[in-house]
Specification:
It is built from 15 helices and eleven strands. By secondary structure, it is of the alpha/beta class. The protein has a five-stranded parallel sheet. The protein has a two-stranded antiparallel ribbon with strand order 1-4. A two-stranded antiparallel sheet has the order 7-8. Helix 1 packs parallel to helix 2, helix 1 crosses helix 5 and helix 12 runs parallel beside helix 15. The longest helix is centred in the N-terminal third of the chain and has 43 residues. The protein is elongated, with a radius of gyration of 31 Å. The relative contact order is 0.10.
Amino acid sequence: MGQRLICCLDAPSALQPPLLLPVRRKLLLLCIMLFLWLYMFYSCAGSCASVPGLAARPAAGAGEATATAGAHGESLQVLSKLLRRAPSGGAKGLAGSAAASPSELREEQSAAPDPTSPISSFFNGSGTKKLPQAIIIGVKKGGTRALLEFLRVHPDIRAVGAEPHFFDRNYEQGFAWYRDLMPRTLDGQITMEKTPSYFVTKEAPARISAMSKGTKLIVVVRDPVTRAISDYTQTLSKKPDIPTFESLTFKNRTTGLIDTSWSAIQIGIYAKHLENWLLYFPIGQILFVSGERLISDPAGELGRVQDFLGLKRIITDKHFYFNKTKGFPCLKKAEGSSKPHCLGKTKGRTHPSIDREVVQRLREFYRPFNMKFYQMTGHDFGWD
């Protein structure tokens, strides 16, 4: 009887843990429901794929609280890490890492959180920013803008709209600054940019090679005479009082000596500039797109580019229509739009009438350089 009384007196202390468990369970359940709600919210927004661990079911009895608490603590640790990794944004946030090397940036990218996770998507948006794997390096007035706009239709290509001019004007800003300009990409997508002046910038090949020796390079070339006239036409639209094309072309009109210091002429000496690039990149790593064929057969040239980038040929004839007013092909549907899209009024300007003798003299001047360029690239562009 005495033993039974003692047991009864001890009963309350034995019942105390079960009384506390419901409270703890409710708190943990509330936390789990909150995480599940966040998961469902970001899933509906299309910014996540899965949330590992949150749906794990705890063990029964006293082990249930321990297992659930462990999972909850693990989730908090992951959240804390993601918070620490979240970008601060803007140039100020990158100031401390502007001097980071490309290899350090690549390591940082590989260590970054899964871009498909909901929490990462919440803090970082969809995907991660990466240094470009492919760059359109030239040439000015060759058709680079058209090529970029056409390529952006491809779902596996993400490209910067504006020209970064990193490897010619802003290199001192550092690779972190450059990477921050890039769009966010998912696994399997290619990051691209285009800055036509890279092709004629002496330092650009070494700088791009320092970023990544595997960078794929694209050059859009065009008949150098037509290209020079187009270049002049663009300058004329901004500065109507500049000298005539003829006077700028020659150092001495009487002797017919061409002024190669004029950028409009100098850019068209493609073989000279290519020699500089071949010091750092093999010819097979550079794709040469015909500016003329980009107009006459855009799907054909885009097919070559997609093959070069290792992508499925998604951009085909069905994406283009020819605009007779502008005189070049346009997109039936632009990136992220259901409406037709043509390049702006700055493209397709009417060229001024140039003296035929001047045009013929320029063709003679460029002919040996063109022949050498054909030999270097293994492709006859038919400019002569």
